Amino acid sequence: MLKGKSAVVTGATSGIGLVIAKALAAEGCNLVFNGLGDSQEIENLRRGIAEDFAVKSIYHGADLRKPEDIPALIEAAEEAFGRLDILINNAGIQHVSPIETFPSERWDAIIATNLSAAFYTIRAALPGMKRQGWGRIINIASVNGLVASIHKTAYVAAKHGILGLTRAVTLEIAEFDITCNAICPGFVRTPLIERQIETRAADHGISIEAAAVEHVEEKHPSKKFVTTDEVAALAVFLCGEHTASINGAALPVDGGWLAW
After folding, report:
1. Can you state the angle between helices 39-53 and 15-26, rounded to 10 degrees?
2. What does the pLDDT average to over 54-77?
3. How many Å separate Cα 243 from the centre of its chain?
4. In this structure, which of 61, 122, 185, 240 has its CB flanked by the most CB atoms within 10 Å?
């Protein structure tokens, strides 16, 4: 479906971002990876996906906390593949703390990584997408872009901001056959959520698995974690030609969280 197209995926070295990258590659999409991790492990991932799916892939180490680094990330895709068709803004970090003890530096880092980086990648990507008359932008938000959770002020603020950014961008690009949508997952058992489970286990004096059950049952009527494959499948769907009229949407994948 996406053979010959190219994508930038941020936060693509683990978790949701990695699974989205693999799902795009499975459809024939060339990739620019961005994310943190050991350089050799990243190279192994990059090479493995390129070989497994017979696509081209490169890694770019732009620090998304630094706006001046971000244009080069987009340029890398345009130089390597001739164009950038798909932008997946997935990179994200988390810190959990009551607001009165929430460290200022963690607020700044979360807003920079989870919100501002998406603004800068979109700003850099849009000129090329407009010239070619086609593009797909997908922002990985969160159910916390639609409802709040306790002790997550920076994360909730950033994810609400991502939804506002998504909608505002949509109004500017809708006539160019470019879409900008947000996916809002509930709890996905990524390293970010795993750390919250570990904290719950320690605080309550229970096992990791018991804490995981408590964690998911608290919010998901399904009593199941959302899988990375479910999020990736929606992302691939939104990249298709037949989704041109889905624009500015905030699409929950949340196990029924918002139905409570």
Report:
1. 30
2. 97
3. 19
4. 185
Burial (0-12, 13-18, 19+ Cβ within 10 Å), 123 = middle
Domain that holds residue 192: 187-225
Which tokens in the block code for residue 35? Answer: 């994310």
Any idea which residue has 């590659």 for tokens? 25
Global pTM?
0.96
Q: Tell me: do 132 and 196 sit in the same domain.
A: no
Structure tokens at 68: 């001046």
Mean pLDDT of 33-38: 94
213 shares its domain with 98: no
Nearest by Cα to 10 from 204, 161, 162: 162
Q: How many domains does the chain have?
A: 2
Summarised one tens digit per residue, pLDDT across range 106-129 is: 999 999 999 999 999 999 999 999
Distance between CA atoms of residues 225 and 187, nearest Å: 6
- Residue 207: how many other CB atoms lie within 10 Å: 10
Rounded CA gap, 116 and 244, in Å? 26
Alpha-carbon span 260 to 253, nearest angstrom? 14
Torsion angle of C-alpha atoms 164, 166, 171, 173, degrees rounded to 10: 160
Residues 209 and 89 in one domain: no
Q: Which two tokens stand for residue 17?
A: 């971002």
Residue 185's CB is within 10 A of a number of other CB atoms, namely: 27
* Phi, psi values for residue 68, rounded to 5°: -70, -20
> Residue 6 in 3-state DSSP?
strand
Phi and psi, residue 187, nearest 5°: -75, 120
By annotation, the residues acting in catalysis are 155
